[in-house]
């Protein structure tokens, strides 16, 4: 967990791409993070920010759309930057 904002029950997870972090591996890591934070009592919203300065992530909007969403337990937003 990078940042917990308890007053708004929000977690901010930050990642940065690197040569050894493929799009597939990033997706797998985020899926694990999402599952973990769904169990956290102070997390109703999760923001995952991926800093990708070299454009290593193929189809960044697709990754964002696939992993972002709302359900009864937690709201998830994934953002890959820069756009």
Task: Please explain how this structure is put together.
- The chain is of the alpha/beta class.
- The chain has one domain.
- The protein is 29% helix and 31% strand.
- It has two helices and five strands, in the order ββαβαββ.
- The protein has a five-stranded mixed β-sheet.
- The longest helix is centred in the middle third of the chain and has 16 residues.
- The radius of gyration is 12 Å and the shape is elongated.
- The two termini are 24 Å apart.
- The model has no long low-confidence stretch (mean pLDDT 94).
Give the mean pLDDT: 94
Total domains:
1
Percentage of residues in strands: 25-35%
Proportion of residues in helical segments: 25-40%
- Parts with pLDDT < 50 across at least 5 consecutive residues: none
Note the main sheet: 5 strands, mixed
User: CA-to-CA gap between the ends?
Assistant: 24 Å
The number of helices is: 2
Q: Structural class, please?
A: alpha/beta
Listing every helix as H and every strand as E from the N terminus to the C terminus, the arrangement reads EEHEHEE
Number of distinct beta strands: 5
The best one-word shape is elongated
Strand order of the biggest β-sheet: 1-2-3-5-4
Radius of gyration: 12 Å
């Amino acid at each position: 967990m990078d940042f917990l904002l308890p007053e708004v029950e929000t977690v901010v997870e930050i990642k940065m791409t690197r040569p050894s972090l493929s799009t597939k591996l990033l997706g797998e890591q985020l899926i694990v993070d999402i599952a973990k934070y769904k169990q956290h009592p102070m997390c109703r919203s999760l923001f995952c920010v991926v800093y990708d300065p070299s454009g290593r992530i193929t189809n960044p909007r697709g990754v964002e759309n696939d992993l972002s969403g709302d359900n009864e337990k937690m709201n998830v937003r994934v953002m890959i930057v820069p756009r």
